[in-house]
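#structure-requests
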Amino acid sequence: MADTLERDRARLLEVLTQRSFERRRVVLSSGKESDFYIDCKRTALLAEGHYLIGRLMLEAIRRDAPSAVAAGGLTLGADPLASAVSLTSFLEGGGQKSLHAFIVRKEPKGHGTGQWIEGLAALGPGAPVAIVEDVVTTGASTLKAIERAKLEGLTVLGAFALVDRLEGGREAVEAAGHRLTTLFTRKDFIP
């Protein structure tokens, strides 16, 4: 299995590099300027990318947060990741081993219940969850998802991201008392 995971990791890096990575100057949502851009949705929304992300993130969650019953994060970057993890968990065993998906809104729903989290009804009070994220830069989105999940009564076991840009996000998440596991870092794209 380790060989298969390594092969899947290498393939995911290849797809991310081909489809999602661009070497150019950009202004990020944090307001910082960067010499590269990575849009993981370009990979996560491909059938192969969805499959690879699901396998690799599920493996990381099961290793580092084995009691998690769900995976989710801040919309929109986390949405396909949570979906991939949930689907893969069902396909790999179903039943009690399946992880549900949830979505953390940036603002509460404007009508009806005014809820912040979609999928919360499937989780019990205090449910142990993993926060997923596509790219970590400053850690602000990850921390917002963690805070909102906790305010809704969930127990956050850690955060899991595809890419750490190595721009202070890991330190911010860890300073807030949470573990951050990433599949790749800036160094995988720019040695």
